[in-house]
Amino acid sequence: MTINQSGWRPTAPASGAAAAPTFTGNKALMLEEPLIFEIGDAHTTGVDFAEGDVAGSRLGDLTRKTPIGLPGLSEPETVRHYTRLSRQNYAIDLGLFPLGSCTMKHNPRLNEKMARLPGFADVHPLQPTDTVQGALEVIHQLAHWLVTLTGMASVAMSPKAGAHGELCGILAIKAALAKRGDTDRKVILVPESAHGTNPATAAFAGFSVEDIPATAEGRVDTAALTARLGPDVAGVMITNPNTCGLFERDLKAISDAVHAAGGYVYCDGANFNAIVGRVRPGDLGIDAMHINLHKTFSTPHGGGGPGSGPVVFSDALTPFAPLPFVEKQGDHFALVEEETAGDHHASSFGRMVAFHGQMGMFTRALTYMLSHGADGLRQVAEDAVLNANYILRSLNDTLDAPFGGSGPCMHEALFSDDGLADGFSTIDIAKGLIDEGYHPMTMYFPLVVHGAMLVEPTETESKAALDQFIGALRSVAERAKAGDASLKTAPHFAPRSRLDETLAARKPVLVWKEPGLAVT
Amino acid sequence: MRYLPLTGHDRVDMLAVIGASSIDDLFVDVPDVARLDGPIHDLPMHASEMAVERHMSALARKNLTAGDAPFFLGCGAYKHHVPASVDHLIQRGEFLTAYTPYQPEIAQGTLQMLFEFQTQVARLLGTDVANASMYDGSTACWEAIGMARRITRRGKAILSAGLHPHYVSVARTMAKYTGDVLDTAAPRLTADTDFEERLIAKIDDDTSCVVVQYPDILGRIADLKPLADACHAKKALLIAVVTEPVALGAITSPGEMDADIVVGEGQSIGVGLQFGGPYVGLFGCKEKYVRQMPGRLCGETVDADGRRGFVLTLSTREQHIRREKATSNICTNSGLCALAFSVHMTLLGEAGLRRLAAINHAGACRAADRLATIPGVRLVNDSFFNEFTLDLGQEARPIVRTLADRGILAGVSLGRLYPSEGALANGLVVAVTETTSEADVETLAVALEEALA
């Protein structure tokens, strides 16, 4: 309790008194911000250029004749516009961000500083390799960390995000099958609880997708899976730990069965954070796994990317990995590109991206790994799992934990909407949490649980932060169980109340148009 | 362990609440074969911030940075000046450490920014609509080819010889799996593109799309309208690829010439070189094709109190809803790079972008004229924006290496991009931007003349 030393005696506001609307529509620090198209114009610029005439007209008769329609703002206006927008966002820097399967952990600022060193940020991807030895060495060092932590044979660094990494792994499987003339294998088995990217990826690569059911305890039904194996099955895509937050105990046995039946095992590594330093996925017999550097290795999510999704491979799939990659040749780091690879890499399935991958993410991830070290990364997994179990056990008197009897969870705690009052669902709890100052957990995923709430606290939360979150979630859940109608209209204190997503999809307005031109 | 807030006491207390006797109890489901008893060998233990900074800085110093050399590289990545406020704004934690805006009530900052980004991109490319970004230009390009297949239900794509060879390689990789047939060719060191002689002649009733780069890999600029007309006469789509968006401040946009899908690499605006990534893929198209688009889209709507707000929309195209029937498997895209693009574009505005483009073009004209005076050097292009190709009369790749040894980053040799195309070995692609001084050009000219002699 702080002591009021001013002598001023507060009086309680009259209850129920509605605040008068403000002239601006702003409410103190809650500031409304128009679109740049409403405040900028075609003549204003926030960048100074050299004065004077510029000559030259080698544009092949294609000199622009029409205006583009780009508004400009001065620098102060620009800084204010985006600063005001930023304040309408929730972020890890503001509080616990328990979005299950997304691993929203603290983003160390040393990572940002290192990625901005001119030696990394200001080098061109096509410079002669003698002039970028340090950049290639970063890639080589990061690759060493990744194969060592996963116990795999090799790593492809170029995939741009997790889903792109999945594609990389599946294309390698397809190339391996093609190499041995085994082209009748057209089915990829995917557990029901999989991320949506898994079936989308398999379908893109021309496979048909078949669901494998989950057991009552939330794991892959090993019997159903092995029974389905056969000469038409190319492989399986399994997430481990899975999206119910459980370790797939039978994964080694599944891998052995899949291999015996001639298929390959793709592991979705989105949840690697739970086991880094405690388990090497390679010891479980998998053939490929992507690693989201923006999850496990703390590179920022940035409001939806950029990510980075290197893929580790087993010996069996290594020959089919994409190019380019970095090879150490004596003291020199060479960039092996598709165009120059030669026979040594003749089986590679090819190039996935222009240039060599997400260098800016590599420097951040390597910085993070060096900071934590082998001992710290192990502690990361332990604390992530400890925090999740603490939430699971602290709340299972309030919320239904469908797999609470299946043993400890890994990095995320899964609850269902069972027991809420009639007409109340997960979304009401989520929106209630917003009013409590939290980003909600992942909602309605995985699909195998009714009204799923997937809570992933990560290791970068203190016990005090967890206790407050547990209190908030308990309070909101109890309101939902009691049928508190105010939850149905939550959030009440956010910059916006619930948004009409149906309207947005029915009459899509995807770009701004001048008021006279806009369709309303 | 500065990133881990739990204390030893906390851990003990929490284990007690859980009812576990040790942390190992929580990993009981891990089979013995996969259980590690302690930190992995062969990797270092944790290190202080100062020690890590020293390690990383030593690696950074081994690179020759663009800012420390006369610098002329382009071919899909360009050195432009990025105002300091761009990097400041993208480092605000509310942008940097937010997730994909799944909870729109507390993500209006990201969502409004994406709506503004989509509008800026659509206007720049000349398309009706644009999405909230792709990974980069090369992946946007193959996504566009896939989209054309879905729209036309045809599987033959004709790729211009002027398309960036890495983009061609990416498309070739993907085509192996999607069954698309690609018609490709290597460029020739001539002033003319392959539009007339090759592309228009090849369009037939099986053609899903024609893919052209504008300006192309050699820097050449050609009118897209006749090509668009030829495509549309056969009910095929024209896909235009823009790897240098600053050019569209000076030249007519592909959309204005009736291209159906326009994709691009947005790196030039706001993002920086970063040794190739992360960059930001631009993706725009005609409105009638929007439901076949890949990637996230932000749309305007209202909240329960009638106030304007923004949400992710048309998500029935996407993997998290449609699973195996999605238009793409893309999930995370390039949100923060899209923010950098949008901030930089807002700072520039129409007037700034046009001035920037004019300065780039004028500098390139001066440099091309100067370099073409070197004995034995021929300027290949008639038309160009800020990038042009020189025929050095001898192999360019060793010349580039020689000049790099002298601290000059002279450009991209076509031998680097097309090692198996002997006819291109003498080609050097030179890019000139607002960051290139006249002294830089003179330094290059003198050194190049010496190296060629």
Secondary structure layout plus pairing:
The complex is a heterodimer of chains A (520) and B (453).
Chain A: H1 36-39, H2 75-86, H3 109-115, H4 118-121, H5 133-150, E1 154-156, H6 162-179, E2 187-191, H7 197-204, E3 208-212, H8 222-228, E4 233-239, H9 251-260, E5 264-268, E6 288-290, E7 311-313, E8 325-329, E9 332-336, H10 359-395, E10 413-415, H11 426-435, E11 442-443, E12 453-455, H12 463-482, H13 501-506
Chain B: H1 8-18, H2 23-26, H3 49-61, H4 84-90, H5 93-96, H6 108-125, E1 129-130, H7 137-152, E2 156-159, H8 165-178, E3 181-183, H9 195-202, E4 207-213, H10 225-233, E5 237-242, E6 261-265, E7 281-285, E8 297-302, E9 308-313, H11 319-322, H12 335-371, E10 378-379, E11 387-391, H13 396-405, E12 412-413, H14 414-417, E13 427-431, H15 438-452
Parallel strand pairs in B: 2-3, 2-4, 4-5, 5-6
Antiparallel strand pairs in B: 1-7, 6-7, 8-9, 10-11, 11-13, 12-13
Protein name (chain B): Probable glycine dehydrogenase (decarboxylating) subunit 1
Keywords (chain B): Oxidoreductase
Subunit structure (chain B): The glycine cleavage system is composed of four proteins: P, T, L and H. In this organism, the P 'protein' is a heterodimer of two subunits.
